[in-house]
UniProtKB/TrEMBL annotation:
Keywords: FAD, Flavoprotein. Residues 39-220 form the FAD-binding PCMH-type domain. It comes from Pseudomonas cuatrocienegasensis. Belongs to the FAD-binding oxidoreductase/transferase type 4 family. This is FAD/FMN-containing dehydrogenase. Transmembrane segments: none annotated. InterPro entries: FAD-bd_oxidored_4_C, FAD-bd_PCMH, FAD-bd_PCMH-like_sf, FAD-bd_PCMH_sub1, FAD-bd_PCMH_sub2, FAD-linked_Oxase-like_C, FAD-oxidored/transferase_4, Oxid_FAD_bind_N. The keyword Aminoacyl-tRNA synthetase does not apply.
Amino acid sequence: MSGLSAALVQALHAVVGDAGLIRDAERMQTYLSDWRNAYRGCAALVLRPASTEEVAAVVRLCAEAGVALVPQGGNTGLCGGSIPDDSGEQVVLSLTRMTAIREVDTGNETITVEAGVILQRLQEAAAEVGRLFPLSLGAEGSCTVGGNLATNAGGTAVLRYGNMRELTLGLEVVLPDGRIWHGLRGLRKDNTGYDLKQLFIGAEGTLGIITAAVLKLYPAPRSCNTAWVALADVAAAISLIGRMRQLCGDRLTGFELMSRQSLDFVVRHVPGCNDPFAQVHPWYVLIELSDTQVDAGLDALLESGLGEAFEEGLVVDAVIASSEAQVAALWALREGISEAQNHEGPSLKHDISVPVSCIPAFIETTDQALLAYLPGVRIVAYGHVGDGNLHYNLSKPPGYADADFKDQQAALMQIIYDATARCAGSISAEHGLGQAKREAAEHYKDPLERELMRTIKQALDPQGLMNPGKVL
């Protein structure tokens, strides 16, 4: 219990009760490492408040005592942003008991939820009233709304609906001194000064703790068509997405790019997943169209677009799903990549973004540089082509020792990040900086931007107690 006085522990216990305070070392372990076991830490204790008022009371007590807090949601991140350091003096503040759906306003097309609501439950609540909440990602069965907001999550439907910044109208936030900002406004127009909610979205809990949000709802799709398409190269994917955008407009909901290496891992390690084609191809895209009309002519649109692309040599082969089961099978190939790669030993995750037009050149030159540095390294490249976001992950060469591969992490990361910088890209598209990319951001992010970020941090959290060691 290093750093925490008995009086403070007693006061915190009085706020959250028996169900909200965990001191047992074995029970705490779940909160002290990420799902990949890539980051581990220690903590004085774990607190699980059940309301915004309890969060505020906890924050006030810890602020008065100078105790650092590490906010945590579903703990599904990839950059260690929700894991405490190894001092054993920080307190993990889990929002997983705050699971209320406070209001569904179909007239305003909004839903107000607490930070601990699981993303899948949010999707279900929207569906129950005939609406869609469009954020969708592989961890949706366990990630929370608070974590999605803290990292400005994107997912597979960003092309049409945008990321969490675009999906959020209002926030409720506990500030570092324990005050509550009541910003739960469902307004689409509010030009009365700074858009404060945007400070907290993507801040990874370093400026305050998001406890609830007003989110946008959309009409539920009533028709959907999905295709798995084989391509000869990445340039063909860029040409194809341009063609499909022109043809389909905002009915183009998803356009996901995957390398052959990505598909190999999925077919090898994810039960029930099979290659849709008999022949091997170097690249694939998963295309999804959706519409609110039952008979929207999506079949004809998809077939027309792919047919013309085939005639021009952009498409090598394609299969269009003819049932919900086939749609699910195709999406499983895309969503199983991250899990499948874990079976191949340690993986180095890189979540970068570059202008869409730069994607082919980025992949070609970066692939060459990586293979020249570490022959045999397996490059698992996939992502959301429409917004320039690539998950550019690395697995060790066959037979290479895990420890030796990890020793190469810094050099491999520099190759990727240098290439990203040359394309005027970002070293983090949707996973955040956490602790994994904090030091890299010092090098690759504009110095003035870093200075402005520190100014904001100092103004809101002068004691530096909100998720210290993350982002900055």
